[in-house]
Design goal:
The chain is an alpha/beta fold. The chain has five helices and eight strands.
Length: 139
Amino acid sequence: MLNLIVNPIAGGKKGKKMKKNLALIEARLKERKVDYKIDYTAYFRHATLITENLIKNGATNIVVVGGDGTLHEVINGFSSFDKVALGIIPCGTGNDFARAIKLPSSPVKALDLIIDGKPLYTDYMQLPTVRAIILLVWV
């Protein structure tokens, strides 16, 4: 099962862009017969708490559906770095990190990469109070 953490207002336009992207993502998941669960963020740092709870309850993968801010929150909720894979479906306004690692900008193509690809280990940096970069990601 894919555990999607969705920032409903990522990409701006008061969530209109995310609604469109999420409809495409869900249609593809159903078409490909992939089990999934969606958790929506509701406030600042909520993605961190969602991530912590998912991992504590045995999740083996987490997929960020949002932008750089949502990604930052999710990696700061990570533990069990060697047992949980992280996927990124870039749906923010900048998507700087996704662009830097050459992820597809199309939500459907990024999802297909997660479904069909294999997670690869990637380093992260532990700063005094936060983590930066990434750990295990589909590329």
